[in-house]
Amino acid sequence: xxxxxxxxxxxxxxxxxxxxxxxxxxxxxxxxxxxxxxxxxxxxxxxxxxxxxxxxxxxxxxxxxxxxxxxxxxxxxxxxxxxxxxxxxxxxxxxxxxxxxxxxxxxxxxxxxxxxxxxxxxxxxxxxxxxxxxxxxxxxxxxxxxxxxxxxxxxxxxxxxxxxxxxxxxxxxxxxxxxxxxxxxxxxxxxxxxxxxxxxxxxxxxxxxxxxxxxxx
Length: 217
Prior knowledge:
By secondary structure, this protein is an alpha/beta fold. The chain contains ten helices and six strands; from the N terminus they run E-H-H-E-H-H-E-H-E-H-E-H-E-H-H-H. It is globular, with a radius of gyration of 19 Å.
């Protein structure tokens, strides 16, 4: 296995394409590896971060007429974008999705979805075998049990797939806070999704914008 190290192994927004798979009510109802609210939060944050960096994002569902539409938290980030509905369980066997990914010209393929052991693992393993540089965002994904999620991650690591969390990805795309064109938009995207750090950031902004009281006469 080729080790993933060195500067060139880090993810770059200009080389990345994101695929969000099956974040739907049916899958969420049997999500047992994570707090469902956390997965919704993390996936929404991931979508917003991708938008900040101009990373093409492919949205897809499986049999939405029965399993439900993609979470509105995601579609509201990309209000004019078509959601590709599939019958294939394995997203990478659906030509519309694969063609949409290939049309971006990017080779760093980033995947998150429900469930990890099925709808994430299958396309990730197939795409990696076809030469794509695949990363799975584990905390914007989830399985039917803790075991199912963790075994799927082990299986994908064995297949040479990279694992990250959404906040680590955001930092890797930003890389340098001197990149002002994305630094402030990124903070704005994170402020409702990054827990205590986000609240501390908002507090800092409050303090910076509070006038210093004039000295008593």
